[in-house]
TrEMBL record:
The keyword Isomerase applies. One of its GO terms (molecular function) is isomerase activity. Keywords: Isomerase. The keyword S-adenosyl-L-methionine does not apply. It comes from Flectobacillus rivi. Residues 55-169 form the Mannose-6-phosphate isomerase type II C-terminal domain. The lineage of its organism: Bacteria, Pseudomonadati, Bacteroidota, Cytophagia, Cytophagales. This is Phosphoheptose isomerase.
Length: 173
């Protein structure tokens, strides 16, 4: 993504830039949420999942990432110095790629123990989390923009926003 991001950019400016870029790329945003205390997200039309994957994850084959018929492509926007909840999922694995901003932080663990180590992901970095793997996305010095694909592991009951087990949350959710 070709965005002009600084730590002083407002949430509105960031979202406007991302919306314009997604429109330029031909992606249909079916939902946009700027109300999250950590930032927000864009949900892309599911029928555009192959195009989304080839745009943001060109190094991955669709046959390798598509466990079921649904991928739920999203763009996550994390604010400076904010953290998403320490969480895991029963019905999905996730693939992330930092597509704008300088760096984001990620914590990952196979257990509920979060630990102190923050892995820094530079723009262009890619990470994959397995179903049940504990994880947290962290905004560092600047806004971070992350392309996300959900790998639904249960074809009968695809994952949704209810499939979040929060172990710790800065915002009391």
């Amino acid at each position: 993504m070709n965005l002009n991001i600084s730590p002083n950019s407002s949430k509105e400016e960031i979202f406007e830039q991302i919306a314009a870029e997604l429109n330029t790329l031909g992606f249909n945003v079916v939902k946009q949420d700027q109300t999250r205390p950590w930032g927000g997200f864009f949900v892309i039309d599911e029928t555009q999942a192959p195009a989304f994957a080839s745009t943001y994850f060109p190094h991955l084959e669709m046959s390798d990432i598509q466990i079921t018929n649904k991928l739920s492509p999203k763009i996550l926007v994390v604010a400076p110095e904010k953290r998403l909840s320490w969480q895991y999922h029963f019905r999905r694995a996730e693939i992330w790629k930092v597509i704008a901003g300088t760096t984001v932080g990620v914590k990952i663990s196979p257990t509920d123990e979060e630990g102190d180590e923050v892995k820094r992901l530079e723009s262009g970095s890619f990470i994959q989390m397995d179903k049940g793997e504990r994880h947290r996305l962290i905004g560092l010095e600047s806004w971070g923009v992350v392309a996300e694909i959900w790998q639904h592991t249960d074809p009968e009951t695809p994952s949704d926003e209810e499939d979040i087990v929060r172990l710790q949350d800065d915002f009391g959710r």
